[in-house]
Amino acid sequence: MTGSIADWLMERTPRERWLLGIGAAMVLIWVAVTLIWQPIQSRRQDARQQIALYDRALVALQSGGARAAPAAPVDARALNAIVTEAAARFDLTIRRLEPAGERIRVTLDDAAFQTLVLWLEAMDRDSGLRAIELDLSRRPAPGTVNAIMVLEQ
Question: Model pTM?
Fold first, then answer.
């Protein structure tokens, strides 16, 4: 088999061999970029985004207890609207809402833990809603939880 390829190549003119060599080099470069370089760069970018999300969640957790008394603005809208809108911004799926006066019980399924922490921090900062009860249960997928919480203004 190798002899036949070498024979075929020797039958080509020097210009054709040169062009075939350049074409083969271009194909190898394209394969290397497509199959090796681009997937590595994509994974690195995904990892950077994940690390940034974890960093924001960590900062939110660390600063949550240290915050003094500056009150968050009180949103005059219904609690259902506030919670639903904020959950949509963070791509959280609400399974159940149970409003009761100044409180609302929220049930979330399959939420990313770091997204949940950031959402709770945003609810406190933007609407003055704080979690007074929080029950988290771990899901099989890494970093995923089910949450039942009571939020209060």
Answer: 0.57
